[in-house]
Amino acid sequence: MKITKFGLSQIGNQTPLWAKWIFRIIFLLTTVTISWLAATNIVSDAQKYEITLFLKVVVDPIAYGLSKLFGIEETSLYNFQKGGK
User: Fold this and answer.
1) Domain range holding 55?
2) DSSP bridge partners of 70
3) Could you tell me if 19 and 67 are in contact, meaning their C-beta atoms sit under 8 angstroms apart?
4) How far apart are CA 18 and CA 36, in angstroms?
5) Is the pTM above the cut of 0.90?
6) Which of 21, 34, 64, 65 sits between 20 and 30 A of 15, alpha carbons compared?
7) What's the domain count of the chain?
8) What is the pLDDT of residues 6-28, one digit of tens each?
9) Which residues pair with 14 in a beta bridge?
10) Distance CA 5, CA 13 (A)
């Protein structure tokens, strides 16, 4: 039986597909936001630079790191019913 767990111990395990897709969606949204921001004159160039750095240097790595903390563990059905690992 496959169980999704969260934590530092899950970094080496396979990442669930839904966690991969959440990261991909966040990455795509930050890229689209930066592209839209670059094409507009709503904010100054200095603010565009700061927003771009924040999204790509802070938000994307955090989303990627969190997605890697989810892992899939294989457990036998017998151990799962008994409460063991």
Assistant:
1) 2-82
2) 6
3) yes
4) 27
5) no
6) 34
7) 1
8) 998 888 889 999 999 999 999 99
9) 72
10) 10
Residue 75 CA to residue 81 CA, distance in Å, equals: 10
Longest dimension (CA), the chain: 62
Q: Please write the tens of the pLDDT for every residue from 38-74.
A: 999 999 999 999 999 999 999 999 999 999 998 988 7
Give me 80's structure tokens.
Answer: 């799962």
Identify whether the C-beta of residue 26 lies closer than 8 Å to the C-beta of residue 59. yes
The DSSP code sequence of the chain is -EEEEESGGGTTSBPPHHHHHHHHHHHHHHHHHHHHHHH--SS-HHHHHHHHHIIIIIIHHHHHHHHHTEEEEE--HHHHHHT--
